[in-house]
Amino acid sequence: MCGGRVGKDGIHGVTASSEVFSEHTPAGHVQIGDPYTQKKMHDFLLEARDAGLIRFVTDNGGGGLSSSVGESARYSNGALIDLEKVPLKYEGLDQWEIWVSESQERMTVAVAPEDLEAFMALSRRHAVESTVIGRYTDSGKLHIRYEGRTCAYVDLSLLESGFPQWTFEAHWQPPEHRGLCEPVLGEPTDYNALVLAMLARPNICAKNWIARQYDHEVQGTSVIKPLIGAGRDVPPDAVVIRPVLTSSRGLVFTQALIPQYSAIDAYHMTGCTIDEAVRRIIATGGDPAHIGGVDNFCWPNIQYDAEKNPDGRFKAAQLVRACKALRESCLAYGIPLLSGKDSMYVDGHLPGRFGERHKVSALETLQFSAVSIIDDITRCVTMDLKAPGDIVYVLGLTRAELGASEYYELFGKIGCRVPQAHPGSFLPLYHALAKAIGKGLVASAHGVYRGGLGVHLSLAAIGGRLGATVNLDQVPADGALRPDRLLFSESAGRFVVTVAPSQRRAFESLFTGLPLAAIGTVTAEATLEIRSGPQALVRLPVEQLVASWKGPFGDLI
Questions:
Q1: Which of the residues 45, 142, 303, 419 could staple to 154 if both were Cys, CB 3.0 to 4.6 A apart?
Q2: Backbone angles phi, psi at 91, to 5 degrees
Q3: The domain 175-556: what is its CATH number?
Q4: Biggest CA pair distance of the chain
């Protein structure tokens, strides 16, 4: 909601008889969800707001008019609505359907009677249909009519009573108390086959057909597209659009989702998910000081039942810990939550071969979406290697954090040491990288996410169709780590960055006292070579990396 309040206290200059508008674009002119419709409405409402014609505005989302009018009527203590005046996109709707319909591209606006003529004139100028459907009152009632007959006459105190507070039982058990521990795995000897197997994992492999189903060129505003690189086939850390074509400013959008970590602790799942979204924004050129977020919870049933949901107390404790991490992380990164949603019963019952049914609960999951701004879209950066001779850096510490990692899952293991986010120590590094990108010192930047360095060095090479020679001994690490742990740890707070040799001194000067190391160079020979000391652990042609990465979904790619 934005604008002023609906009320009669005089503070906001609004009377109890403010007009209620249903405002939308006429049916049949455009498709629902058409960006052209949204832009017309957006431009109209901004101009009306700036002219002081709007006292209150909200969209007709969940619950339609029942929500937008019902909630706003609480400010004036009443409303009178004539449903037959509501513009319909479909004929033959019952009165209750009109009241609760969630048809898109509709807003509810409160306008003072003396501003009515100016508001309607502006609406016509923008070709947006606006209709008076009623007025706000101080009757204490939500009065709904249809062709003069009363459909509902509800005391507003009903809306203010709220939903009864739900209490539930929660019992947290740390991972080690649940029998989780680190697996006993010897060091692999065939790293080439291992890297190829990791790239082919369902959570990592190419899924390009998904992005290609959607038109991301609406109005021609895309700057960083859903697929980038020499082959236009690698997903970037984030996408960027240029909403105003006459401006050099851009909007950066991304999202992160790591449900696997909840197998150990939903607190760290939430913290790492938010941190990943932040790094995706920064790696593309977004401003770490201007990030907004949207949290989407997908959770199994938390109501304990000894027979039907015996682990309900634990799922509830996971939710409590996730909410705590959400609060702490967003405060630490300075991220306002712009919106959110939840699906709180992600459970199913699958049939077995003997007619029995098996209950299956999804992992406790938080998807986090993030948006930021970039002042100059020419400073946007992508993750693909750019030029032979560029220096390859790793930013951030690698720790022995492989719990619930893609590497452990490859062997059917979970582990215990789940990656953890540390915003306090991460932020100085993030701001330094953002400054380097803003100064044009960075050729490519890519966060290290699911699968670790082994996967994301490979994807950077795939993106540029260039090779690289790197040495794991140079990777900043918290203690001595075995090569496979250096390659596949999923520690948060890390990036792979490439810089032209001419920019090396200026780049490194921004990271004094921060974990950063040059680990190798980009090569013209399209081969990825990863060394540990004198030994080449991995030596794979980029075309073989591409084949393995694209193999699982075959022709769909």
A1: 142
A2: -80, 160
A3: 3.90.650.10
A4: 88
The answer to whether 495 and 437 are in contact (CB under 8 A) is no
Q: Domain 19-160 carries which CATH code? A: 3.90.650.10
- Other beta carbons within 10 angstroms of residue 374's beta carbon come to 28
Alpha helices in 60-115, H assignment, sequence order: 65-76, 95-100
| CB-based contacts of 425, cutoff 8 Å, min separation 6 | 493
Long-range contacts, 184-191 (Cβ 8 Å, 24+): 185/411, 185/413, 187/482, 187/483, 187/484, 188/484, 191/483, 191/484, 191/487, 191/530, 191/537, 191/538
343-366: pLDDT as tens digits? 889 999 999 999 999 999 999 999
**CA dihedral sign, ordered 112, 116, 121, 125:** positive
pTM for the model stands at 0.81
14: tokens are 């609004």
Helix (H) or strand (E) holding 424: helix 423-438
User: Is residue 79 a contact partner of residue 69, using CB atoms and an 8 Å limit?
Assistant: yes
State the SS3 of 281-347. Answer: HHHHCCCCCCEEEEEEEECCCCCCECCCECCHHHHHHHHHHHHHHHHHHHHHHCCCEEEEEEECCCE
Per CATH, 19-160 and 175-556 having the same topology is answered yes
Using one digit for the tens of pLDDT, what is the confidence trace for 81-102?
A: 999 999 988 788 899 999 998 8
